[in-house]
Amino acid sequence: MQRKKHWLAIAAATYLSSCATTEKQVIPATGSEQIAQNTLIQEWQGPYQGVPAFDKMNLDDLMPAFDYLTAQHLERIDMIASNSKAPTFENTIVALEKADRDMGRLFTYYGIWAANKSSPEFRNIQRQLVPKLSAYNSKITQNQKLFDRVKAVHESKAVKQMGQEEQRLVSLVYDRFARNGATLNSKDKERFAAINRQLAELYVQFGNNILADEENYILYLKKDQLSGLPESFVKSASAIAEKNGKPGLYAITNTRSSMDPFLRFSTERALREKVWNNYYNRGDNNDENDNNQIISQILKLRHERVQLLGYKNFASWRLENRMAKTPEQAEALLLKVWPAAINRVEEEVRDMQAIADAEKANIKIKPWDYRFYAEKVRLKKYDIDSNEVKKYLQLDNLTDAMFYVAGRLFDFRFTPVKEGSVPVFHPDVNVWEVTKISTDEHVGLWYLDPYARPGKRSGAWATSYRSHTNMDGKATNVLSSNNSNFVKAAPGEPILVSWDDANTFFHEFGHALHFLASNVKYPTLNGGVRDYTEFQSQLLERWLLTDEVINRYLKHYKTGKPMPASLIKKIKQASNFNQGFGTTEYLASAIIDLKLHTTDPEGIDPRKFEKETLAGLGMPEELVMRHRTPHFGHVFSGEGYAAGYYGYLWAEVLTSDAAEAFQAAPGGFYDKDLGQRLVKYLFAPRNAIDPNEAYRLFRGKDPKAESLMRDRGFIDSH
């Protein structure tokens, strides 16, 4: 999942990072010494066109920096709006592109505190900052003189004579204003702004409640409660407990990276149930961190806001400028796959129940049993032990494997920077310089923050601290970042990950490559269409199973021997194993998301709505949504994926179709011609080309959902 920022969407996405470029910062003589010395305001110094001063971040500087820079930015906005000259592309659209550079640097730091280094002190400041953020955004989007100029450029004859990138930029900037209240009368604008302020506060509260439940519901075990758990996991759990002041115990943290392997391997069924409940009830514990009431408020406010704009519901507004276009088309894709997915779940449960019965377990499969017995089925059907597979999935080797793929496809070389030459925000973070192999040209930096820790939000994501632009005639480099939550190994031990986590690692690296490969002129074009931007990262997962990666990098952590051909064959044969579980838990979340945003929100009880809607769909009782509504951060801690979680499946149709193209190519997944087209049409243009057009340029045709069904083994591939 990628995370990016734009100045018109800051308040709606509290965890976002910057995509701005640097610009000389001049502190006026009237500025106080405190402002002049504020690190968060200063131009980035050092090598690589300047880098964030993460080592000098001071939380006390955040509010003063925000107040100073927003005032400065709004002055620039007023100058653009009040320009006495007739509106042109240069004096209006390009001027807007340049106006927020300093804010971009500030929000890089803000994003780090929000996502990687949260603390009670930061959350307190964040609560104070959020209303200011919303008001600041509204002053821009509701500036009538500014919008009049944007509209004049948008409707001018000169647009038709512009280049493709310029036309795309004008259209995107105009739509951004129009879709955010610029066309409303003064009374409705005031209400629109008030709603945004309320929503921004609720998003922060929702996210902080999830983080609180993740931090507070840690399960500490004794040595006799560890049966079935892999040695590497036990050592990690011991190290975490000791770090938390509980030596001699073993910590099972309330995150997916800890929950998933515990449910997969622990033989202690009662403990599996407890860990499962802790994780899936985040935000739903009827306490001060319960999110159900917040969800109700968010849904009502979103609905009211889009009605001011004339839309039937939030989903209709959200999908209008996405590939799906309408919620009906998005839901149609989800429901097309749903029957095959739940049928496969029934098959999987029958296989699991048969093993449980044969073992005389005297149980009926429950959600906390699914992963555990799926492992037994995997072992029986394919003779694959996930714990054995992990021994070949060492984090350092996987990192090198990603670099190899980036070299073959993108001509990128990754070289570790000299220790201390680039500031980092935590000792665990490492940095690489990215250069072109063929020309030695500098491209940018790649930061990796791999481990789970208190104050860091769960999951995995990618972001950029600076994106490519050559708007000023000279290209800026890219500062990209990947962030994971792997459980840190005990000192001296290798970090071994699951096959699913290895896929996710490649997925998020795909986002980073999307940032690094950018070749757009204007900052706004580094954005993306949400049901398209997941495609590039999903596609990169496919290279994990290529022979080149397997033979070079999937080596046993003790012996160094490559993964044996027999095990590789089993993994490939089992590539669609447990697909019912994976597809159904995802689809359930995506369908609930759409239905919540196409239903009149008045009187909705989120807990009841979730239960009744899933029952109506025939949701199997042996599993739950991937993200239950009370902790669905994608949808309720911001707006990036709201009414848009379906986008992963929409993008996967493209992924499956593109994968078939590589499978049919003479050079397979490393085919030179197809690889060049991949970069040229699907990565480098970012949002400078309409996604449908970009895909047709790459593939020569539109994708079909049947490729997805074949890919998941739901229909015959022959």
Structure description:
The protein has 718 residues and is α/β, with parallel strands linked by helices. It folds into four domains: 188 residues, Neurolysin, domain 3 (Orthogonal Bundle), CATH 1.10.1370.40; 64 residues, no CATH class; 199 residues, Neurolysin, domain 3; 178 residues, Neurolysin, domain 3 (Orthogonal Bundle), CATH 1.10.1370.40. 53% of the residues lie in helices and 6% in strands. The chain contains 28 helices and eight strands. Strands 1-7-8-6-5-4 form a six-stranded mixed β-sheet, sandwiched between helices. Strands 2-3 form a two-stranded antiparallel ribbon. Strand 5 and strand 6 form a beta hairpin. The N terminus is likely disordered.
Features:
718 residues, alpha/beta, Neurolysin, domain 3, 4 domains, 28 helices, 8 strands, globular, disordered N terminus, metalloendopeptidase activity, M3A_DCP, metal ion binding, protease
**Strand order, largest beta sheet:** 1-7-8-6-5-4
**pLDDT averaged over residues:** 93
For the record, give the distance between the C-alpha atoms at the N and C termini, rounded to a whole number: 32 Å
Proportion of beta-strand residues: 5-15%
Q: What's the count of strands?
A: 8
Radius of gyration: 25 Å
Which spans of ≥5 residues are poorly predicted at pLDDT below 50? 3-30
Sheet bearing the most strands, described?
Answer: 6 strands, mixed
Total discrete domains: 4
Task: State the CATH class of the largest domain.
Answer: Mainly Alpha
Please name the fourth-level CATH homologous superfamily of the largest domain.
Neurolysin, domain 3
Q: Mind telling me which CATH architecture of the largest domain this is?
A: Orthogonal Bundle
**Net shape:** globular
GO molecular function, one term: metal ion binding
Cofactor: Zn(2+)
Protein name: Peptidyl-dipeptidase Dcp Metallo peptidase. MEROPS family M03A
Keywords: Hydrolase, Metal-binding, Metalloprotease, Protease, Zinc
